[in-house]
Structures are given as C-alpha cells and as structure tokens.
Input
Amino acid sequence: MNAYFYYFYNFMRQIFDNLYNLAIAFKDCVLGILDIQFYQKLANSYYKDLSPLGWIAYIITHILIYLLIALVLYLLFKALKVALRFKVPVVKYEKMKDEVVTLKREIMKANYEKDKILAMKISEMGLEVNEQLLEKNPELNAMYSGTENPDNMTDEEIAATMEKEAAGNSENMETGADVQNAADSDSVNVAGIKESNTENADSADDDENKVEKIVTTELRFPRLSSVDKVYMAPDYVPYEYNKTVTLEEICINFRNYAASRLHLYYDLDVIKQTFATFGAAKMLILQGISGTGKTSLPYALGQYLQNPSLICSVQPSWRDRTELFGYYNDFTKKYTETDFLKAIYEAQYYDGMKLVILDEMNIARVEYYFAEMLSILELPREDERYVTVVSSETDSDPEKMVEGKVWIPSNVWYVGTINNDDSTFAVSDKVYDRAIPIDLDARAEVFEAPDTEPMRLSFKHMEEMYEEAKQKYPISEEYLLELDKLDQYLIEHFRLTFGNRILRQMKAFVPCYVACGGTEIDGIDFMFAKKILRKFESLGLGFIRDELDGLIIYLNNAFGEENFRISKEYLLRLKKMSGAM
Output
C-alpha cells in the first residue's frame, strides 16, 4: 500500500510541476512580448546602420507591434468581461425587480388613499345638501330623525310635501345635481363601482339566480323610462312600412338614393353583399384603407331607412362590456345609461331595421368589450337573447326590462369598421367567424343616379324575404359536392376546413345574394374568399407559396376559369406578398 502512495505522490507532483512550469512559461512569454527595454536595446544596436528607408520600416514595425499588443490586451479584457458578466447583471436585475415591486406598492397605496378621500368628499357634499333640505322642511326632519309624525300626515301628503319642497328649493336641487354629476364623472375611477363585473345570470344555484326586489320610487333608468313614455303615449302612431319591395329593388334604390341625395357612390356588388349579409349574420365588418366609405355606407343606409344609424366611436381604453351597456352608480343610485343601451332598448318598440356602427372597432380588443354580445347573438332562440344590466329590480324600472335584464332584439344589426394599421389590434378569428367581412379597397366611380326617395323597411318583411330566398335559391347539389371536394383539398394541402359555422353561413348568404340580384357562383366565390382564404394570412405565406398555384389550378378545373374572380385575385395578392417577404 505504501508503494501506491509513493506512486500517487510522484504522479501528482509531476502534474503540478508541469502546470507550474506552464504558468512560468506563459508568464515569461507574456513578459517577453511586453519587454519594451529589450526592443529598445535591439533598436539601439542597429541605430547607426539604418538608412532612411530602414528608419521608415522601423517606425512602421513598432507601430504594428504596439497595435498588436493593444489588440491582445483588449481581447483578454473582453474575455474576462464575458466570463464574469453572468454574475453582475443578475444582482442588478434583482435590485431593479425589488425597486419595481416597492414602487408598485407605493402606487397602490396612493390610489387607495385617493379613492378614500374622493368617497369622503362626495359623501360630505351629499350630507350638506341633505341637511339643507331637512332644515327647510321640519316634517321631513322629524321623519328622518325617527320622531313621530306631528301632523299625522298620510303617505300621499308626505309625497306632496316632498314635491312642493323640491320645487321651492331649486337652488338646493341644482347643488345636489352638481354633486350627482361629480359622482357620475368620478365614479368611473373608483374601484368596484361597476357591478356588472360581478353579475352572473347563468349561475346554477337557484338562490344566486334570485333577483333582489328593491322598493323605491326613484327612476334608476331615466333615459329608458323616457323611451317608454314616448311609445306608450296614447297619441303615439306607429310608422307604416313598405312591405311590397323586393331585395333586388332595395339594393338598386339604396344605391341611387345614396348617389342622388347624399353624393355617396358605391358599387352595386358591395350593396348586394351588404344586404345578403343581413340575411346570414347579425354582424358585418367593413375593412379597407381610409376614405373608401366604411363608415358612410351604414350611415347612408340608416338615412335611407329613415332610422338614423347609431355611431359608437370605439376608444382605446375600452376593456369590458360596461363601455357599451353602462354601469350602476352606487353614489347616485342611478344607472349610467349609454346610447348603445338606449338604442337596443328602443328597438323593441318598433318593427323597423336598426344599424349600430362600431366605428374603428379594432382600436381596442373586440373580444374584450363585445365578447358578451358575440355569444348572445349566437344563441339559436331569440327569446334567450337577454343581457343582464343590474342584479336587482324595482317597480320604477323600464317596462320592457325583466328582472334587471334587457332583451337583444333581432331587428338590430351591428356594423364594425376596421383599419388594418400599426395603431390597431388584430381582429381574432372568434370575431371574424361570427361576422361577414367586406373589403372596401377603392372608391366607386361617380355616376348619374335618378332622384330616389327613402323608405321604411319592415323587419318582418325583410325576414320573410330572406326566408323565401333560402327556400327558393338554395345552393345546388352540384356546387355542394364541389365544395365538399374543395374542403378535402384544403384539409390535405393547407390543414384548413370550412367548419359547420362557415358552411351554415354560406348556405344562408348565397340564396340571399341571388335574391339581391347576384349569381350563385359569385356568392360562393365571395364567401370562400372572405371566410376561408382570409385564414391563409395566419399560416405563414412563405410556407404555402408553392401551394397557391395548385389551388388556383384546382379552382379553374372545378368551377371554370371565368369564375371565382375574387378568390383568384386574393390568391395572387397573397403570392405577391409571400414573394416580397
């Protein structure tokens, strides 16, 4: 065993001696390279023998040597820096993370204190107004202080006294209105005021579904209640609607009306696609470059129908449904009603068509603020299309509000305008699948149109014409067979499929398009381009570029070279985009 230890000792000693000699040699090498005195002595030994040309070569040689030495030192410095950089940033990152967390906590504390101060100020202002009213009215003061009624007044007399006092103290009521307006404007910033985030009408528990009944005579929905007064007045006379015009006549008349009365010009194909969309889906998307009439088209249609379209200008801050439906204000005990909610509610009272325009709809995420509506509009039964507004009900609520819910009527269509640029969000497939997009990429040519009068169209008459078109002009069995083969081709080459929703929309759109004056093959072409080929942009154009030519050849063989013009133009544009990439 001792022999082994001697062996191991001598073995390790030899290794460390060699490592030591290597270190000494490396040190001598580096010091030798940097031995400036040796270079100086060497130069002095040849000093007298150098010619002018030799002096120039001598200087150049020294410059190059010094640059080489500087480069070696720089590379050594960089190597050490790279070797050690994994330690320094981690420490800095941890310190920065701690500072960010501390800063967030301070911000949260500041916001909390601000909300508390805001609530206290509004509460104090409201108490001052109430105290002024009570001082002016001893009877009310006695009632609110818990004392007996000195005059044994009845409920009717108390109500009359309150109305009289309210009329005689207009200045105090104006002050109270200012307080209420302040609460309305500031309540958006107070966390937890929007109770719509906590409402859930689909809860499985019966106790949670039970709507609370609140006893109050104060109007929580003044704007909706004013709608009730207008349409429930004894002297209200419903409008008369045109119930004889056909879909093709509507398209032609609207185009002529927009040109002759509003000086707005549209291609007839775009008008046909628009009205055919109304028969297949509740949402239409108009997309394209700015200035092509995306907003003016639904606006002009509202003027033609003598029922002005509601324009909702979407804001970048929209994040939930309260931007459209409003919210309940706990301070004022009133509901902050929006134009969107009023238009939806009012549409229940008449049979005309109503358009709601979501202008610049993708400047915020559509699936955030419009998600609930997308789900409701997909429900097959119209009597299930309710949206919960408040979780309680009162006797003073609007007539057509049921247990805090408002019905989404079927005579309302939603038109969204989209600009595809850097300032907007990409629209998700969830939105595109439930809507039908129309591209407006160019201005229509100006033409002479005869003066055309507007008309009121009955929603029931429109529905009857759409149903009649679906029965009269269904997609032929020949094209259905070709579409099935085309679906298999897409699955094999692009891993895409029509899907049940798209096929259902196509079977509804094409007959309506034919009834509007179009052809069956053009309707199929439009739906294939807008609902299927649109998905190609998300597949990676560089990978499918070679397959696009094959798809064009397939369309020519299956449907004819003269057909599917929209789809082929779109495929050629995609191919050009993939080549540019």
User: Anything to note?
Assistant: The longest strand covers residues 412-418.
